[in-house]
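are you around this afternoon, could really use another pair of eyes. what follows is a protein written twice so to speak, once as letters and once as structure tokens for the fold. i want to understand how the tokens follow from the sequence so walk me through it. anything you notice is useful, everything is just below.
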Amino acid sequence: MLTGFRFQYPVDVRFADLDALRHVNNAVFLTYLESARIAYWLHATRRLGLESLDMILACTEIEYRSPVMFGESLVVGVRTASLRRASFVMEFRVEASGGERLVAEAKKTLVYYDFTARKSLPLPAAIRAQLRAQDPELREG
């Protein structure tokens, strides 16, 4: 169980995720994190469908802690760590299922975005409230 992460997303490692060294390629972790982020957003905001994704990725940081091999099952913990006027930071923790080892830790900065107007917007109060309800410990500012 991922302590401090109320939202958890399961990942099964596929053969296609491996590189020539037979472990999960570092770039594949981005896919794992993005899948977990989208699932978190739809869950926390109670929205449906990809058209409800009104944010863009500004930055990703990943620290790799342990290699992952074919056939392993992972769990990605996701939480919103902080909110700003138009952006927010999400934190991720990836563990082998059962919590036997830490695989990676990551942070993403996202910007609330109007794709029609092509500009950032302040995070609406309703979304702020939904993110606070999902992750009450998050910081403002």
User: Anything to note?
Assistant: The mean pLDDT is 94. The helical segments are 28-45, 125-134.
